[in-house]
Amino acid sequence: MTLETERLILRHFVEADADHLYTFACDPEVGTPCGWPAHRSVDETVWVINNVFTSDECYAICLKEDNRAIGVIELKRPGRSDLAKGDDEGELGFWLGKPFWGRGIMPEAANEVLRHAFTDLKLKRVWAGHAVYNDKSRRVQEKCGFVYQYTVKAHRCDLTGEVRDECANLLTRESWLERNDV
Questions:
Q1: Pairing, β 125-131 against β 89-96
Q2: What tens digit of pLDDT does each residue of 87-126 get?
Q3: What are phi and psi of 11, to 5 degrees?
Q4: Where would I find the beta strands (DSSP E) of the chain?
Q5: How far apart are CA 10 and CA 61, in angstroms?
């Protein structure tokens, strides 16, 4: 499935995305706040594309002008999520290459995935989390209507070993419908 917005194409990954995506995934300022280490090679990015970015609801964020992957957004379902527990829930996870920060790209992508979650998939709740120090993710979530629920203290990130506090935020279908006059 492909989703589109005014400026973006959200599509499934292909191996050919690895070279371009690596230019962003190798930056520790991108991965560390999201809980994963910077990629060390294009081969590692290929492995992630083939083994991690595989769910039906995982999308490459691409600008329409060139269709090159500049980030990732996924609607994680139970089993792939720390927060979503029921079949009517999902968890939004995302990251974006640093050169594209501050342009409103991530809220645009997130809002389209949320539209898909609530209208096409008929989910009732979508969760999103962020490290307490990750103000960029917090702001994206706030712009999309997520509401703070609780903080997980001393959460250990499996991929980095970092121990940090993480906030859990929630957006309900009812709240999304109200915000979007649907």
A1: parallel
A2: 999 999 999 999 999 999 999 999 999 999 999 999 999 9
A3: -135, 170
A4: 3-4, 8-11, 58-63, 69-76, 89-96, 125-131, 147-156, 163-172
A5: 5
Indicate the pTM of the whole model.
Answer: 0.94
Question: In whole angstroms, how far apart are CA 158 and each of 34, 36, 37, 102, 164?
Answer: 11, 8, 10, 28, 11
Q: Whole-angstrom Cα distance, residue 7 to residue 1?
A: 17
Query: In whole angstroms, what is the distance from residue 9 CA to residue 129 CA?
Result: 24
Domain residue limits, the chain: 3-179
pLDDT at residue 144 is higher than 80: yes
**Residue recorded with tokens 């409103």:** 104
- Select from 1.10.230.10, 3.40.80.10, 3.40.630.30, 2.60.120.620 the CATH code of 3-179: 3.40.630.30
